[in-house]
Amino acid sequence: MTKIVWIGLLAMTLAACSGRTKTLRTETPAATPAAPRTYTYRVIESYPHSTDSYTQGLLFADGVMWEGTGEYGHSRLQRIDLETGRTDVVATLPRSEFGEGIALLDGKIYQLTWENNKAYVYDAATGRQLRTFAYAGEGWGLTTDGERLYMSDGSEYLRILDPETFRVQRSVPVTFRGAPVQLLNELEWIDGKIWANVYVTDQIVIIDPASGIVEGVIDLRGLLPDEEIAPDTDVLNGIAYDAASERIFVTGKRWSKLFEIEIIPQ
């Protein structure tokens, strides 16, 4: 990995050291973590992506790309046609709410809100809202291992939730070389690991969900070409995994492209 990428993550860990006091029950990571692996990338394919979409959550399941978007008055849950970039809005959040991460579990889509302390649950087949859950603190990213939900909240902690009650079963602090990593944004479960965008960076970290240790860092600098960057183009955010075909997709907030990538060890 280049020195710039290491410095970026070091800055995140130093910022985390001065974070607010946490109240969640935590587990202590291993004392001597192995050095994280570093990766670059290769673009396999690019697809159109709506620049109206402030991407907060992304997932792929059963041939369908789902997206949760943010910003007040523009937050929604939608499907994306990969070939055309056209969106099919499934649900729209109240104008007073800012949408965040999404996850699909047992035929239900869960969608977080940022500061509204509320999660929505929809029937994935019909889009019908089934229920809402309340939670403390902020909502950022959301993913699942097929049984439980994993949620980030802007801190270095991942909350592990019961999907039936949304209660916190436990929490795990995420660490990079022993130091906490904050600003974990969109999450995706890939082959037993949690991939997380690190907000305001071009990095994705690969996390062991049991220990919270960052085992890998992917440098995605330069992914969106300069000619595709507009004044309102925002940061990298959005990871989706097609488990059936082992395809990895990434995009960003108001990006004009959604990319299928392959990661390459350095």
Automatic annotation (TrEMBL):
Entry superkingdom: Bacteria
GO molecular function, one term: glutaminyl-peptide cyclotransferase activity
PROSITE patterns: PROKAR_LIPOPROTEIN (PS51257)
UniProt keyword terms in alphabetical order: Signal, Transferase
Signal peptide: 1-18
Name this polypeptide is given: Glutamine cyclotransferase
Taxonomic lineage from the root: Bacteria, Pseudomonadati, Bacteroidota, Bacteroidia, Bacteroidales
